[in-house]
């Protein structure tokens, strides 16, 4: 392994050299841009190291919570057909359609609240409005499960700005809500296979002193991994369980939509610009 020398080259800049290669980190206000040449790295890794831009992390406050739900609605709309196809393979074939309707209803409700009240609502109010919209408009299992997740989250974050521990607690409560409402366990090939790893990753990240956005990012990446892992699982809950061994070889649509929703939370906080990996199903943040 090559030795790496780190040298200060001016107040906001630093240069790292390894075997004649350089990487310059330019800090401009709230943006950190990495550029460089000559790195003996593979193409994908080199691209990330040299071109990734890290944006300023925003506080997890009222504005963030609204941006999260708006971003989640946009992500679900973008992946509506994918989610529907996943559900068509092992379920009723309506997950993308139903969740798209529910998320748009949540956004409409938030718009109505903002118009009526003027000031932004705190995160707890935003999550409760999202929960009631999902419960009222999303059919099948997804509405009750996600609605319960957001409802329990709303009760766990009675603060104006979320700390790292608040994020971990919020996601932990959401996961408990999904587990209790669905009577599922990890490995049953349900959305809990994304929610519970996310909650665990958030708890572990918060314990190490990670920032709130870093905690969110850890949770979102764990949700992506959990959703990916459902491909090889046999469904033991829901309509997919009727297929038995034939459910193997398909991703769970609820786990996939959970990953999309949590990724939207990271993006809303300014914690992501480009995914670190983008396989066919999903990408880490």
What does this protein structure show overall?
This protein is α+β, with helices and mostly antiparallel strands and 285 residues long. The protein has one domain: Serine Threonine Protein Phosphatase 5, Tetratricopeptide repeat, CATH 1.25.40. A 5-stranded antiparallel β-sheet has the order 1-2-3-4-5. Strand 2 and strand 3 form a beta hairpin. Helix 5 runs antiparallel to helix 6, helix 6 runs antiparallel to helix 7 and helix 7 runs antiparallel to helix 8. The N terminus is likely disordered. One of its GO terms (cellular component) is cytosol. Its EC number is 2.7.-.-. Pfam families: Dak2. This is Dihydroxyacetone kinase, L subunit. One of its GO terms (biological process) is glycerol catabolic process.
Q: Order of strands in the sheet with the most strands?
A: 1-2-3-4-5
Mean pLDDT: 80
Strand composition percent: 5-15%
Q: How many structural domains can be distinguished in the coordinates?
A: 1
The helix content is 55-70%
Largest beta sheet, briefly? 5 strands, antiparallel
The stretches of 5 or more residues where confidence is low (pLDDT under 50) are: 1-54, 273-282
Shape verdict: globular
Q: Could you spell the SSE succession in H and E letters?
A: EEEEHEHHHHHHHHH
If you compute it from the alpha carbons, what radius of gyration comes out, rounded to the nearest whole angstrom?
20 Å
Enzyme class: transferase
Keywords: Kinase, Transferase
Pfam families: Dak2
Domain DhaL: 63-267
């Amino acid at each position: 392994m090559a030795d790496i020398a780190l040298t200060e080259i001016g107040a906001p800049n630093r240069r790292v050299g390894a075997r004649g290669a350089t990487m310059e980190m330019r800090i401009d206000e709230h943006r950190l841009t990495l550029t460089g040449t000559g790195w003996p790295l593979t193409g994908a890794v080199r691209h990330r190291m040299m071109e990734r831009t890290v944006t300023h992390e925003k506080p997890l406050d009222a504005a963030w919570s609204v941006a999260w739900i708006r971003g989640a609605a946009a992500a679900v709309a973008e992946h509506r057909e994918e989610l529907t196809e996943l559900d068509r393979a092992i379920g009723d074939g309506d997950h993308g359609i139903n969740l798209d309707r529910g998320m748009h209803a949540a956004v409409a409700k938030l718009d109505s609240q903002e118009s009526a009240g003027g000031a932004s609502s705190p995160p707890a109010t935003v999550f409760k409005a999202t929960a009631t919209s999902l419960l009222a408009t999303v059919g099948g299992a997804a509405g009750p499960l996600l609605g319960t997740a957001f409802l329990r989250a709303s009760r766990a974050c009675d603060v104006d700005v979320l700390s790292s521990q608040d994020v971990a607690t919020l996601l932990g409560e959401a996961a408990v809500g999904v587990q209790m409402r669905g009577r599922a366990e990890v490995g049953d090939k349900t959305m809990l296979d994304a929610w519970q790893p996310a909650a665990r990753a958030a708890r572990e990240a918060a314990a190490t002193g990670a920032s709130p956005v870093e905690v969110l990012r850890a949770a979102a990446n764990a949700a992506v991994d959990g959703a990916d892992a459902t491909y090889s699982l046999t469904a033991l809950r829901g309509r997919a369980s009727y297929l038995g061994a034939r459910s193997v070889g398909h991703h769970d649509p609820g786990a996939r939509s959970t990953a999309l929703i949590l990724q939207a939370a990271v993006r809303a906080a300014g914690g992501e610009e480009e995914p670190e990996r983008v396989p066919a199903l999903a990408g880490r943040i």
